[in-house]
């Protein structure tokens, strides 16, 4: 190996070591909350994709059963996590606690509130049917949504958590609020679409009728030269 190649190798190694030190330094500067927030974004992508797969299930009974299993699990986890979070004395918006037990509890709240929100907004009819009649669940989730919103963890908090809060009527619904995944909304949208299609079809038919009547009013035309007697 000549001197030039040795020099190039040393430069590459120095750059690699320097970059690694910079990454470590950046990680050390990041707060526990910021580090968790990065992983939370990845987790959210997985959750959304999972709920989309449930939505694509053609068998309604299987879809309902899957949502029920998830809701039972979600609320067991959130109720337990809520007790630990309150025990820790954590205030939403503060730096995350050092104790791993309390840090895990916070994560369980945020991740399961988010997953519940996805189910509620994308599978509203099934979720409402199971959720609305359970008082304990309603109390727990009302706390979870407000707590999550105050944490500042959700990048899309204004949109996502606001929609969840409106769907649960924790806050008043906007006059223009609709959930496009609700069966009633789907039927209304389909009905509106059919009405618009019928209107367009009638307009086309009326144009054709008017054109036909206009041509008929003109009467027969005589063509060619006049004949001889």
UniProtKB/TrEMBL annotation:
User: What InterPro entries does the record point to?
Assistant: CC134
Q: Where is the composition biased (Basic and acidic residues)?
A: 191-206
Q: According to the UniProt entry, which residue ranges have a biased composition of type Basic residues?
A: 207-220
Query: For the region Disordered, what residue ranges are annotated?
Result: 189-229
Q: Which residues cross the membrane?
A: none
Keyword vocabulary terms for this entry: Signal
Q: Which residues form the signal peptide?
A: 1-20
Identification of the protein by name: Coiled-coil domain-containing protein 134 isoform X3
Q: Which species does the entry assign this protein to?
A: Hydra vulgaris
């Amino acid at each position: 190996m000549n001197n030039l190649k040795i020099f190039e190798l040393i430069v590459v190694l120095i750059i690699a070591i320097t970059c690694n030190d910079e990454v470590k330094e950046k990680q050390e500067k990041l707060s526990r909350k910021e580090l968790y927030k990065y992983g939370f974004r990845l987790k959210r992508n997985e959750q959304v994709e999972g709920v989309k797969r449930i939505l694509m299930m053609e068998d309604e009974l299987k879809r309902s059963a899957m949502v029920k299993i998830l809701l039972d699990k979600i609320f067991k986890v959130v109720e337990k996590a809520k007790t630990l979070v309150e025990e820790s004395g954590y205030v939403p918006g503060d730096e995350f606690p050092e104790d791993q037990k309390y840090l895990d509890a916070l994560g369980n709240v945020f991740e399961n509130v988010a997953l519940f929100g996805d189910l509620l907004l994308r599978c509203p009819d099934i979720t409402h049917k199971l959720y609305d009649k359970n008082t304990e669940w309603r109390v727990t989730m009302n706390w979870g949504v407000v707590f999550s919103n105050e944490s500042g963890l959700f990048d899309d908090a204004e949109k996502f958590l606001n929609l969840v809060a409106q769907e649960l009527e924790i806050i008043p619904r906007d006059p223009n609020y609709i959930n496009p995944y609700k069966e009633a909304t789907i039927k209304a949208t389909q009905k509106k679409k059919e009405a618009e299609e019928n209107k367009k079809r009638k307009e086309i038919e009326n144009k054709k009728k008017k054109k036909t009547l206009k041509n008929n009013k003109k009467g027969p035309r005589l063509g060619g030269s006049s004949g001889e007697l």
